[in-house]
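Q: Joint fold for the lines below.
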Amino acid sequence: MDGFLQALLLQSGYNAALVAIGAALLGVAAGGAGTFIFLRKRALVSDALAHATLPGVGLAFIAMVALGGDGRNIVGLLTGSALSAAAGLLAVEWIARRTRLPEDAAIGAVLSVFFGLGIVLLTVIQTMSAGRQAGLQGFLLGSTAGMLLQDAMIIALAGLAAALFVFAMRRPMTLVAFDAEFAATTGVDVRRTDLAMMGLALLVTVIGLKVVGLVLIVALLIIPSVAARFWTERADHLVLIAAAIGGASAYVGAAISAAEPQAPTGPIIVLVCSAVFAASLLLAPRRGVLASMLRRRRFQLRVHRRQGLLALGRAEPILDGLTLAVLRREGLIRRDGVATEAGQAEAAKALRDEARWRLVRQNHASEAVAARYDGLTPIEAVLTRDEIAEIDRRLAATSGVVR
Amino acid sequence: MTGAARIAAARERDSAEAGQPLVIHGLTVSYGEKPAIFSVDAVFRKGTMTAIVGPNGAGKSTLLKAALDIVPRLSGTVTVFGESFARARRRVAYVPQRASVDWDFPARVIDVVMMGLYRELGLWRFAAARHRDRAMACLQRVGMTEFAMRQIGQLSGGQQQRVFLARALAQDADLYLLDEPFAGVDAATERALVDVLAGLKRDGRTVVCVHHDLSTVADYFDQVLLINIRKIADGPIVTTFTPDNLQATYGGRLTSAHLAEAGLPAA
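A: Joint structure:
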């Protein structure tokens, strides 16, 4: 635990601090960029994109060795991965647009072909130069052990570029995600906006290869925005919250794995992020599972109370156990089911409101008001006192008595 | 007709159509090998309110989408105020079918209306108070000010349609193209929407609606375009919205009940 706290405060040494800061920046970029992919419902495309980086890594290594250079040059490897990811992305787009295959089939095909090719290349590299095996396996699940200042700088620069890009493209990307056809009529180039969005995902994927690896980077792109969705109803806030969740999860995850050197950084980051998601799913105030269960229960109790009062007023027997329990708890009926004085008064009022509502709903002119009738809302919340008095006058005129 | 007379007639037609809000010639659109609309000609004149009427699958929505460059044209030309749509798009507002978007999208009512200001706001600028004021004014015209901060997923169908119209109003266009604006909305909303559209017409703007309720065509619109893949007829309601033309549009699907609903005698 001490180790974790130290790591959290960047006190566990130079490398651990570097990893934590680099991971946090990556998390911010991934969370923000991923929001638009989530809103555009393109999460799977980003997965294909990530898997399509692998052959590029292998080919870049082979090319650099063949040219007599160091196969492990990070800039070279990342450039290679970006090129092959772009090729995979264009392949998905082309198949989906030019053939009758649906997009998910295109994604499945491209993802597996590119990933398979990448694995074959890695095997070839291992046999080709056993001594210089460059830890390319680290690109699969990430490896932060040998992270250099150069790596952290690359992440920081790319993260800054991603943030600027998100800011500039926030409006067209939101517009396209909500209503692509309308966006097209106002002059947004939908196809180019989609490609820009995927280009952003590509950038984040490539810089994330060293930290979380290509298998799990999609988690860091998508989970933060999915978790953030529970906390807001605004797209602009969603981007910020997702970036914060991504950054915080990556930072905490990196600190945990610094304290426990056996724990792999990438998977730990994804687990922390998933924990945030699980907590949001359960606890978020409006969209969370617990909140909506509670809301439903409260609504159910209101319905039972109202039905019970109406039954009391009409002197009908109440058979529903929950209805009886609700009325009893509020002191509206006695243990034996007979209405108390308060119960009688409430029941009379419920009946009177029902009669008033009936009149309002029969009256064609008050259609807008009648549309708000749900059988539960007290009539005082919808109509003014004068309007109610008027209704009562008309009720009295038709039936002779106001009950 | 002699060659010279034909040229003169074509010239006359061209000058009558020049600069009109929407002029469509020989428009054909096809998904796959079966045309959705075939060689349709139509002129929508300034200050008119036109209903596009036809049975399901007649290509009504497709006609709008092809005019707006949303679906590719196989042949034909579309001019908007005498220019290509791409050049005239700032004068056009489109209201898609309500069901075409996911209403659980994280946005409030005001956010959706502000989307109509996209061309003004561009990429970098933040929305200023005057933009918000304009959006609120548009919401007021459709009677939705009190819902401005509501999440769009909580709206009823009629309210969603009002929001879509408010977004189009924010575009401050001269030509409004609406795809089934009255589908599945309550009676109060329908009246409110019709009032707003009639107001646009009074301002000299042009309104075109895909419409499927024969009983209200004559009440709401002054022009009608009847299509069923091909154009059947177009022109003023009085001369065009006739039992014979409806019979030709709907074929066997048209019953005397339909005609009675449209307030017309049997063909």
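Q: Anything notable?
A: Residues 176 and 183 of chain A are 6 Å apart (CA to CA). DSSP finds 18 helices and no strands in chain A.
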